[in-house]
Design goal:
about 40% strand; 14 strands; about 10% helix; mainly beta
């Protein structure tokens, strides 16, 4: 089975997938906001389309014995926002291969600190998030309503096409 090493989140390595912002870092929030304190406005912008209202969902991220990627998904028309609420999380992301083929072959994995909001651009391949310290963590997921029904492309991977995420 292919293995993918989890790496630290950095602006340079993550730029092609979207952006992120530590929402607990007042200094960096002030640098991105039009207001330098108290209310940090518009620090991350998401294109959520205009078909349905934005919604907040909560994903339960588990800390499995083996972090195996068994499903890949992407949204063609909208960004997705993820916020690690009560633990650090591990995410994986990638871009489709030519012909819009979903594969683990070009995925990268990142360690996202608690309190960090991650914006995934449209058509960025991703899937389940994983807890780092807790057995079960909570991830806020920001998407237009019913995206799981009206703007999702998903692929369940056969055993031989899966990958495992590895922490070092």
């Amino acid at each position: 089975m292919k293995t993918i090493k989890v790496q630290l989140l950095s602006k340079e390595k993550f730029a092609k997938y979207g952006e992120y912002q530590n929402l607990l870092d007042d200094k960096s929030l002030a640098e991105k906001s039009i207001f330098p304190y108290s209310f940090f406005a518009d620090v991350v912008k998401l294109d959520l389309g205009n078909t349905t209202l934005p919604t907040i969902s909560v994903c339960q991220a588990v800390k499995p014995e083996k972090m195996e990627i068994s499903m890949l998904e992407a949204h063609q028309f909208t960004c997705e926002g993820l916020l690690a609420l009560d633990d650090d999380m591990i995410i994986f992301v990638g871009t489709p291969l030519p012909g819009k083929t979903f594969s683990v072959d070009n995925l990268e994995a990142f360690l996202v600190p608690q309190g960090t909001f991650v914006k995934l651009d449209p058509f960025i391949i991703h899937g389940s998030q994983y807890a780092v310290h807790k057995e079960c963590a909570h991830i806020l997921c920001l998407l237009p309503g019913r995206t799981f029904k009206n703007d999702i492309q998903a692929v369940m991977l056969s055993e031989e096409k899966r990958a495992e995420l590895i922490m070092e």
